[in-house]
Design a protein that fits this description.
It contains six helices and five strands; from the N terminus they run αβαββααβαβα. The protein is an alpha+beta fold.
């Protein structure tokens, strides 16, 4: 019974958000990120904002669901740099909230180079949303994400 419950854990949606600054080529960044995420760039919503110095900043948001979300999640988690993988495994609880959502920040510049690295600066924020499964205990979610990372 426990094995059946564990097999029910899967990622069903990803929420993606990032900023494009006025100094960046908006179309190029959108094309690279959407290509990397294997998503149609038309599916991203763009909100125009003003920065502190009145410079234009685009807030880009998108959502992937179902099989596409699972494939992108698998690609990201399996392609993490070894250092970042170890860092995550060591402190996985800090990346997961009480609803079992995994929060990652990936280096936007590295994504444009087709590399996956964690970063808190100029990052692409991704929320991995799992299918609700047998537990509401954070430790169970940590165990399942650890299994996905190993």
């Amino acid at each position: 019974m426990q094995n059946q419950k564990l097999k029910s854990f899967e990622i069903v949606a990803l929420e993606i958000s990032f900023l494009i600054h006025a100094t960046e080529d908006r179309e190029r960044v959108l094309n690279l990120v959407s290509s990397f995420m294997n998503a149609d760039k038309e599916g991203f919503e763009v909100e125009k904002l003003l920065g502190h110095w009145r410079n234009q900043i685009d807030m880009v948001k998108g959502k992937l669901e179902g099989e596409l979300a699972r494939n992108v999640a698998t690609n990201i988690l399996s392609s993490l740099e070894p250092y970042d993988r170890k860092k995550m495994l060591f402190s996985l609880g800090t990346y997961i909230d009480d609803k079992g959502i995994l929060h990652l920040r990936l280096d936007k510049q590295k994504i444009c180079e087709r590399k996956i690295e964690l970063s808190d600066v100029d990052s692409i924020k991704i929320k991995f949303k799992p299918k609700l499964f047998f537990s509401r205990i954070k430790q169970d979610y940590i165990q399942e994400y650890r299994r996905l990372l190993d």
